[in-house]
Every structure is written in structure tokens, then in C-alpha cells.
ABC transporter ATP-binding protein
Amino acid sequence: MAQPLLSVSGVETYYGKIVALRGVDVEVNPGEIVTLIGANGAGKSTLMMTICGSPQARTGRILYDGTDITRMPTHEIMRLGIAQSPEGRRIFPRMTVLENLQMGAQLVAPEHFDSDLKRIYELFPRLKERASQRGGTLSGGEQQMLAIARALMGRPKLLLLDEPSLGLAPLIVKQIFEVIRELNKSEGLTVFLVEQNAFHALKLAHRAYVMVNGRITMSGTGAELLKRPEVRAAYLEGGAH
């Protein structure tokens, strides 16, 4: 079997003396969509940030495409082909949509820019309409599209998505998840998705993990976890829209 694209093993992360991640093991294989669900404060975003090197894991190992990235600085990790769309979007509000996309393409050879931009505008037609508008004046949904598009402009082999549905209307959430599915299907993009919206995330994912208080408590295919009564009770009751 091919080696995982991302392998997190025995990772513990601390904020000062507080343990945020407790012996976390997660694998993402090439071409997979893997999701991590859990309640707010479970440690999901901390895992995302630890993969990106800030904060760094105190114990354990993180391998990306066979390279040990556990102690690497963030900018070096990103150069290896990982892109992140962070929680809270964090676009550049004073820059235009186009300028935000140019920032995302910094590490890519310039000759790819026009074709990549065309592809992004096909995926997110709204961004094409808003190309000259400042990022900060976009709606929440448009800002989320821009955050994902900016990450995609870096031509990543692994896309890390942190809470892409947070605070968005159900229709926009559906659109964003459809784009992720399409990229995975048509281009084989590998996606690691952290998400509170368990229903959408598990329907989208090939495999999934559940995190409770910094520990992985369950794993399986997305379909398996959707059927588990304890997952339904904790994350899906009243939330399946």
C-alpha cells in the first residue's frame, strides 16, 4: 500500500502547561478526503496549526510525503505543497480579490498564474464578479470562497480546511462542499477537513476521525460514522440540514 501523504503519530501539543492534544494519531492517504469532527474546543484547530508548525508538537512525529516536518518552521512546511484555509478565513481585507489570489500564488511559477486564475473563476464565479473589490467588503460566504481559492492558487498536494462552514448560510455551505468534492474527484486533490458541521463533513469524507478533549476517540469511513448512534447523538441530532 502507498505511504500516507500525511501521517500524525503520537502527537502532543501544549499551550504553556495545558495539554491541547493527547497522543493523536491521524493518517491521510493520497487522493482522500479525511475529516476530523468534534465539539468546539476539542482540539481540532490545534491539530491543524500543529501540522503547520505553529505551535510545534512537543512529542510525537508528523510526516508529510515521507518528510519529517515536526520541527520545521511554517514557511518551509508550506513550500512542500501544503496549503491552509484557516479558521475565521483571514483573508487580506484591504487587498482586492485579485490581489488576495496573487498572494496565494507566491510560491508557484508565474507562467501558471493565468490558467490557475481561470480555473478558480470557473470554480467560484462570484469571485470573478468581485475581482476588483476589497476582500473586507465581501460577504462571509464570499470571503470563505476567497480563502479556499487563495489556498488553491498555491497548487497544493494537500489542502487543509479549518471550519469552512462556520457562520455561513446552508446554501453557501452546500456550494463550498460541492467545490471540494469536485476538486477531489476531477484533480485527485487530497483534503484534510476540520469541521463542526458533522453531517456535511461525514457525507463528503472518505474517512473520518472524532476528537474529544484532544484525543481521537473514533475513526472509520464517513458513512460508518454517520450511522454510529453515539456520533448521531453528539453531533447530528437537530444539526442535519
The mean pLDDT is 92. Residues 1-81+156-241 form a domain with the Rossmann fold fold (CATH 3.40.50.300). The CA atoms of residues 45 and 162 lie 7 Å apart. Strands lie at 6-15, 18-28, 33-37, 59-64, 67-68, 82-85, 158-162, 190-195, 207-212, 215-221.
